Backbone:
């Protein structure tokens, strides 16, 4: 029996010389949430983000309920690719398809809204968050408060408005990228 099993394992091991081969074969045979998500994560770990993004989108759109780990990565991988519009589209679609509104999904959606200049939408989608898995939520919330002309949260968090402070620098960067030039000019005046 042992010789027979080792022969079977040896045959399968020869077929699956890598995780990519294993999961691509699994997706071909059984394209379910787990196989799609595991294949996507394998590709993401190899920095094959374009392919990973497509598979995460499939794992959150084609499978009900969606594979939870794919829910956490479907928008964030698009942020890593520099595509906030795709993060927003894929993230909102994932929510509509049943992904739970957890911080791993809401964070890149909120960031995408802010980058598009929708500060109110960004604040709204992040309003019930308790965790900040990638450190994006605090930056979005502080920038959105600044757009509302409220610098107290930023001052409370950093103790300064000095652009040399790392968090202030991140907030200023997001404001610039989100088209809030007037807010940046106002912050410069307030920092004097």
Residues:
């Amino acid at each position: 029996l042992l010789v027979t099993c080792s022969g079977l394992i040896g045959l399968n091991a020869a077929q699956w010389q890598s995780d990519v081969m294993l999961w691509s074969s699994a997706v071909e045979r059984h394209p379910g949430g787990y196989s799609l998500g595991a294949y996507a994560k394998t590709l993401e770990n190899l920095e094959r983000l374009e392919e990973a993004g497509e598979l995460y989108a499939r794992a959150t759109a084609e499978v009900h309920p969606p594979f939870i780990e794919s829910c956490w990565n479907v928008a964030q991988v698009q942020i890593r690719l520099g595509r906030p519009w795709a993060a927003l589209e894929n993230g909102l679609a994932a929510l509509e398809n049943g992904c739970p509104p957890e911080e791993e999904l809401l964070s890149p959606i909120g960031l995408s809204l802010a980058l598009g200049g929708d500060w109110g939408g960004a604040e709204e989608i992040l309003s019930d968050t308790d965790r900040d898995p990638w450190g994006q939520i605090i930056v979005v919330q502080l920038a959105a408060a600044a757009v509302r002309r409220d610098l107290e949260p930023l001052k409370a968090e950093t103790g300064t408005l000095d652009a040399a402070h790392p968090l202030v620098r991140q907030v200023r960067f997001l404001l610039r990228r989100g088209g809030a030039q007037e807010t940046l000019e106002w912050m410069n005046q307030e920092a004097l």
Observations:
- Residues 1-11 have pLDDT under 50 and may be disordered.
- The chain is about 70% helix and 0% strand.
